[in-house]
Design brief:
The protein is α/β, with parallel strands linked by helices. The chain has two domains: 329 residues, Alkaline Phosphatase, subunit A; 57 residues, Arylsulfatase, C-terminal domain, CATH 3.30.1120. The protein has eleven helices and 13 strands. Helix 2 packs across helix 7 and helix 6 packs parallel to helix 7. The termini are far apart.
Amino acid sequence: MPSLYNPNFKVLPAIIVLMVAWCNGFQPAYSAPPTPPDNRPNIIYILTDDMGFSDIGCFGGQFLPTPNIDRLAKSGRKFTQYYSAAPICSPSRAGFLTGMYPGRWNFATYLDNKKHNKDAEQADYLDPAAPSIGRFFKNAGYATGHFGKWHMGGGRDVKDAPGFEQYGFDEHASTYESPDPDPLLTATNWIWSDKDSIKRWDRTRYFVDKTLDFLSRHKGQPCFVNLWPDEVHTPWVPQESRTTPMKPEEEVAFKLVLKEYDIQMGRLIDGLKKLGIDKNTIIVFTSDNGPLPNFRGDRAAGLRGTKLSLYEGGTRMPFIISWPGHVPAGTVDESSVLSALDMLPSFAKLGKVAIPNNYTGDGVDKSAVLLGKPAARTQDIFWEYGRNDIAYKYPGPKNKSPNLAVRSGEWKLLMNSDGSDIQLFNIIQDKGETTNVAAREPAIATTLKEKLLKWWEALPKLK
């Protein structure tokens, strides 16, 4: 073999030419092209805890101004017919995470100790085999974080709940009701304590800081973040309670907590702008279920029902989406009906995330609706709450609902799973659910009853 240094052999000059060409930007045809920047949007899903439909100013709130949350509405779009997956926290959260009715995974009320869960005819934690929006986004190249309440497994005597990573989250910081409580929030074996390093009134600040830090460390990579504070759930413990005695369920305490919560939402918005990612970040602001206590009924714009109820006050939530340049600013959609179950396929479409072919969710892609194109809903929405009188809490007689419900177009039917107490409302004309028209519309009542029973009977029952 001739030497490379043989002046009559032309390999070395060729190598030199190739190196010079490479430095000048030439790449051979077989080389991989440079990876383009991933400009898919960040998505932050803010799930407020126990916020009523009209707690905030832009939804008619009368308690105090909420200028920062209202900023989201000014830069985005409000929806007035958005529904949670359940009227209580654990199943509501499971419904969003999976995009499926929570009953399909044996979630029916809030998770507690094993005895309570068994009495409630439900699981101790969300099956890690369940589909997860976190896992879908992570597998598609998103950085995924969960900061805030979890309540889908862990806490009390449930020691074997799967970790956050099994649901697809890269990082997390959570509370007592989770498989891995943050020690700064849980100095004692309970939901909160005066001994916690992060005090109750500073928790939302802490979760916002965690979110902004996560986003700052993943600039250049799209991020999906669950920001799930445990405000405005009772007990309301504002900072002022250190010097001014107040009960943790009285209105003055609620107002102070809501005021601080709004301030922290402002810090989030300003933090995104400071990071230079506000224009490419989708923010969704909503709640997991209705309010409790409801004071004079004014936390839900006069809607009937509260948390623990399938009437509108328990499941119809405030909903805002903001994405500058994509969602029309300062607009309201009063006609499109949305469900929390729709968020998984809708967010996937907006984030260009492929959903596995074997996934069969209960929600539908409403991304075009979120971007400003109203559309009538053709899919029914179903709910359940109250499998027995042993492990379920209920509101007072006026707000206690039958244990099943369906929304179909302009109609909403409620009934018990044994077929009793049928109530039919035209929810467009009577959103306060004041006039039961089941006797007047027997054909509609019968059709919806059959649909509802068929859905209920198809749900797995815990053995």
